[in-house]
Amino acid sequence: MDISTTQYNRCDVVRMVGRVDTYTAPKLQDTMDGIMKAGRYNIVFDMEEVDFLSSKGLWVLTETQKNCKKLNRGKLVLANTNEKIKSSFDLVGMGDYFEIYDDLTSAVGSF
Q: Coil, strand, or helix at residue 10?
């Protein structure tokens, strides 16, 4: 599991490689929390190399979205999400909770 971040003028991009599960989700949460503690609330989560998202991972994304949107400060958007993960969002009724973009350029450009 590898997590990297890149800060742009209008947003931060978080990239992760591997699985988002019970063991890796806390590190993703720490990364997202660190960005928000720095006062930045526009976040793109690039999921191009994420091959699995557990319920714990979904919880991290949901909590991050809730905190970003609090007081209308920003939002979390997803990029390069594979079809299996997209369908799991729909299955649990979260399909409309996140903006999902097919590529990183579109996601970054949404800000």
A: coil
